[in-house]
Amino acid sequence: MKFRPCIDLRKGKVVQIIGSTLKDKDQDNIITNFESPESPAQFARKYKEDRITGGHVIALGPGNTPAAISALNAYPGGLQVGGGITPENAATFLDAGASHVIVTSYVFSRGSIDMDKLKALVSSVGKSRLVLDLSCRSRDGQFWIVTDRWQNFTDVAVTPATLERFAGFCDEFLVHGVDVEGKMQGIQEDLVSLLGANSPIPVTYAGGASRFSDLDRVKTMGNNRVDLTIGSALDIFGGNIPYEEVVAWHRANA
């Protein structure tokens, strides 16, 4: 199991937000936990110096392309990038240094998976450089993939069969537990357990981490197969978990 760092971008700034408040409208109502005075490239260089790979740069809305590219340029091959990725623009980010592109909304149309779009994306960037974002919300006892800034439910649930099917089209999964994202009130243990028991490829879980011991909890519940992203709870994002201690844990456990 590994710690995976993050660089979330809004209006070109590194931020941490409560994911469920991110909507197409009412942008002023987004609840922001943290906005950093440091640039995206400074965070990328920090992760490079600490030799932590596989983190993700996520554009939360428009206007973040220059900021994302600056981070990718600062750590070539060390970061993945997501947010508005299509076959038409994917090469821009890969050429800028992204190891992978992360996609959700493009391959889901009107609430369903569009296999033609998914196959086109695989043809464009290659399976080995594609991460499928299966971020989800709980409803009726299952976790359902959500799109469009995590506001719209699809008709696709995160199940063993779904994970097996989609694994044939990508290199990794990224899964935000949207109901707890940014709230620092605890991880979704049942989701982590589901991923650990059933994902046939590497998977990163993000959402709700609130204390240092969550690293060991995810390692145990995820069968040592689910990587963890910690955002708002890290001290570099205004939280209480020391980043340097997380890095030390990563080096001892990865």
Can I get a quick summary?
Helix content is 29%, strand content 26%. The protein is α/β, with parallel strands linked by helices. The mean pLDDT is 91.
Which helices and strands occur, and which strands form pairs?
Layout: E1 3-4, E2 6-10, E3 13-17, E4 32-35, H1 40-49, E5 55-59, H2 65-74, E6 79-82, H3 90-96, E7 100-103, E8 108-109, E9 112-113, H4 115-125, E10 130-133, E11 136-139, E12 142-147, E13 152-157, H5 160-166, E14 172-176, H6 189-198, E15 203-206, H7 214-221, E16 226-229, H8 243-253
Parallel strand pairs: 1-16, 2-5, 5-6, 6-7, 7-10, 10-14, 14-15, 15-16
Antiparallel strand pairs: 2-3, 3-4, 8-9, 11-12, 12-13
Helix pairs in contact: 1-2
N-C termini distance: 5 Å
The proportion of residues in beta strands is 25-35%
Biggest sheet record: 11 strands, mixed
**Helix run count:** 8
Q: Which structural class do you get from the secondary structure elements?
A: alpha/beta
What's the overall geometry?
A: globular
Question: What is the element string, with H for helices and E for strands?
Answer: EEEEHEHEHEEEHEEEEHEHEHEH
Rounded average pLDDT: 91
How many whole angstroms does the radius of gyration measure?
16 Å
Helicity, as a percent range? 25-40%
Poorly predicted parts: none
Number of strands: 16
Kindly report the spatial arrangement of strands forming the biggest sheet.
Answer: 1-16-15-14-10-7-6-5-2-3-4
